[in-house]
Amino acid sequence: MSLKSEAIHPLPKAGILDISLYVPGKSAARGAKIYKLSSNESPFGASPQAVAAYASKGNLLALYPDGSATELREAIAARYGLNAGSIVCGAGSDELLQLLAHAYLAPGDEAVYSQYGFLVYPIAIASNGAKAVVAPEVNHSTSVDDMLKCVNAQTKMVFLANPNNPTGTYLPFNEVKRLHAGLPKTTLLVLDAAYAEYVRRNDYESGLELVATSDNVVMTRTFSKIYGLAGLRLGWAYCPAHVADVLNRIRGPFNVSAAAMAAGVAAIGDQKFIETAIAHNEKWLGLLTEQLQALGLKVTPSVGNFLLIHFASSGNRTAPMADAWLNEHGIILRRMEAYGLPQCLRMTIGDEEANRAVVSALADFLK
């Protein structure tokens, strides 16, 4: 037997090496003080109650955590009026999105997401051998009609980030219901509501109602954003009973740490802290939009804790040039080339000092 055609090292499954690496927002820039506004992190950090709960687990590191995350699931259930048995916890909502793809996608299947959807979706789809189908957006917002045009007999999953990252746009609940109504019963609709707590619109619903009344809808949430626990990796999914059963069969038996669970319970119980963060975000979302537009910049209307800022596509006022200028002033925003938006930067809503620093630096850049 010839050895010439044999691999010289173990090879991954077909398609894995074609996946583009997920690149997080950068953390370094010049300057004595750095304003990191590239990862949609909370400027308020975590609740002091959550920090104390996390620290309380420091002398129990030798013990395995509760593999069922019972206390955390019960806290979430009590907060939202849910059945704790329909909640599955994970190491961030990212893990739960990957688990859903692992459970329901296989080679030959297709999964749909919107044009500027979260970059984890194509990674989760491709890593399970399925085909990612991208639906065009309209004005940087998900189009239900275009999503439904992509659905066929091979479509096993549809991902909808609502609100969407990185655009900050959202679909009203009646549009989400219209999307769901147009899907086959065998297609799973995954509602990624990572930024739900920030939305202040009467026509928005995170997905709790649709999950409760459907057999093919899952909603994922995270503690990384409004709760300020990104470093702990903690998320949850609300699922029909049969989906929860599947996820519990394939997740790691101890996929959430004891410290993360304790912090999550405390965080979700400190609603006064969360209300303060929401009020700050609502105030600065409007102010920054107005101030950036006054500089002549286009800003996509957002309901999240970030803004998508558009720059010139050519000349000396492009997004890469703005990014370099901001970096020189200790300000880090998120480049958008990986999302197909090379003319944009995404800015997280920071504290007052950081927000004013961005506006001042961009005013100087645009002179």
Written account of the structure:
The protein is 35% helix and 16% strand. The chain has helices at 48-55, 70-80, 92-104, 120-126, 144-149, 173-181, 208-212, 241-250, 258-269, 271-294, 319-328, 352-365; strands at 35-36, 87-90, 110-114, 131-135, 137-138, 141-142, 155-161, 188-192, 217-222, 235-238, 298-300, 306-310, 331-332, 334-335, 344-348. The strands form four sheets. A seven-stranded mixed beta sheet has the order 2-10-9-8-7-3-4, sandwiched between helices. β5 (137-138) and β6 form a beta hairpin. It is globular, with a radius of gyration of 21 Å. The mean pLDDT is 95.
Average predicted local confidence, pLDDT = 95
User: Within the CATH hierarchy, at the fold level, what is the topology of the largest domain?
Assistant: Aspartate Aminotransferase, domain 2
Rough shape?
globular
The share of residues in extended strands comes to 15-25%
The spatial strand order of the largest sheet comes to: 2-10-9-8-7-3-4
Q: How many domain units?
A: 2
Largest beta-sheet characterization: 7 strands, mixed
Please write the string of helix (H) and strand (E) elements. EHHEHEHEEEHEHEHEEHHHEEHEEEH
* CATH top level class name of the largest domain: Alpha Beta
Distance between the termini: 70 Å
